[in-house]
Amino acid sequence: MVPPLYNGIRLNSQYSRNRKESTMEALSAHVRPNARLAMILAATALSFGPQYIANVSSILDQSLLQSGLAEGSRAFALAATLSNLGFAACVPIGLRLTQRFGLRQTYLPLAALFLAACALSATAPNPRVFAISRTVEGVAAGSLFLTTLPVSLTSFPAPIRGRFIAYAIGGLYGMSALGTVVGAVALLVTSWRWVFAIAGLLSALGIVLGLLSLPHEPNAPGARWDFPGTLLLAAMAASLAPPLVQIRFAGLGATSVWPWFLTGALLFLIWIAWETQSRAPLVQYRAIHTVRQISGATMAILSHVALIFVLVAGYQWLQALDDAASRQWLTAALLFVGCLVVVAVAAMWLHPVVGPGVLGAIGSVGVLAVGWLWREQTSGVSVTRVSCEMAVALCLIGLVLIMGALTTALAGDLHEARLRSCSLHFHRNLAGALAPSFAGWWMARSAAVAYEHQRDHATLFQPSALYAYQKLVAAFELKTGSLAKAEQLAGAALLAKAERISLLAALHHTADVVLVIGCAMLSASVAMAVTGKGRPLSHPAPAVSHVPAQREVSEAKARTFVVR
């Protein structure tokens, strides 16, 4: 007897009597992905993509947010920090929720929660409401991050399963690229609220696709939950929030900063010790243990940190250029997206030829080249050049990130890819939560040190400085006809020039950090290349079997069903 159909899906006869115990099974190798698989892939990207769009756009729209909410940079730092920490901490939580309550029962409520939070962010009347809504966004998006991965791995046919993972990880970085475009358009129209409206609309689309494509899965109320690990993780995230907000303003050595960081580090070490011996850990640290897996994880984490530093440095530098305009921000963002498409197509073609390690090495060398150019940058640089260098650096960083994350997932048993991905993306997003605050602190510290150096060594008692000042006064006096006004304008012009020189010094010091990270990325890429090309993204499907459908279904794995 042929098993019955349920929503177009033929159920395993062993479990057709109990719909609560059925999950998606791997497609036959000869079956091409259908519309349902395309919707699952889109729902995967839209589960975390809107949060990436909002995060990247917020970096570019800091001035709009601060002016729109009538608050300074401290309120913005609070909202961004809480959102990033919530996202990172909930990556492993979401995977466990899916295992406990089922995919559909987890995905849809969390996506609805994210949609509601986006609506609240778009209409936030004050910084407090905005910080709460951004925190909820981070928690919901982080919990959604890995929800669809297990069912996707078993849904896609084995010959193209690796290509699905590549598309999912590429979509992750593609959403970040789209965030630069959305942020640039927000600058062009001088409105930051529509960023969250766009994120909400994309989330709503994800909900619709989830309703159409995601399967009904059984609840597992008896599944073991790591309550001590959850509490330790929450305590660690809470202890990191105050110093990440304060470090930009008080510095790393302040008593309101370093004790909190020390507490967070100790809690993190305790949490790792607990997770390694827990019977139901939130993060399976033993899942990443081979050289290839460790190299891939290192590439992905370091490239995420490099992404943050390049975005922060590029944003600060373009903001300081006198001729920078909103439309030029949009040009730079579109250039980034265009370069990313070219790099992605080239990477998919070259992956089976040279392997991910060589591609990662190529990307790392390119990042080192851009870092070196920024290290030698002069104050007369044009907006176009900075935009092009920033776009190239971001694309090559994306290449390293995608190759690292993809290889980590593919290196080993694909049925354990979710465990490796959970470990990788938890640490990657945790590093991403720490990096913006440290990058902002590093830029501010470097600029302050350079400014103080100028003030100590460049005074009007020096003939060259006095001559420049007198020349400016004379020029402004011809324009204004007032000596007092001319002296005031000359002093302001010298101050602006000193600030620009200080920012240039900060850019040089940030380029030093990018160079160090680039060297580490290159080392990890070389280590991966030594291990070989690894598993291909796709391979030819086996010959079509003529086994009757009833026998095929009866031999399906337990707790699965087969898509026909």
UniProtKB/TrEMBL annotation:
Q: Name one Pfam family in it.
A: MFS_1
Give the domain of life.
Bacteria
Question: Could you tell me the membrane topology recorded for this protein?
Answer: Multi-pass membrane protein
Parts of the chain that traverse the membrane? 37-54, 74-95, 107-125, 131-152, 164-188, 194-215, 227-245, 257-274, 294-317, 329-350, 357-374, 390-411
Annotated protein name in UniProt: YubD
What Gene Ontology molecular-function terms does this entry list? transmembrane transporter activity
Q: Which organism is it from?
A: Alicyclobacillus acidocaldarius (strain Tc-4-1)
GO CC: one term? plasma membrane
Compartments, as annotated in UniProt: Cell membrane
Upper classification of the source organism reads: Bacteria, Bacillati, Bacillota, Bacilli, Bacillales
Record keywords, A-Z: Membrane, Transmembrane, Transmembrane helix, Transport
The Major facilitator superfamily (MFS) profile domain sits at 35-482
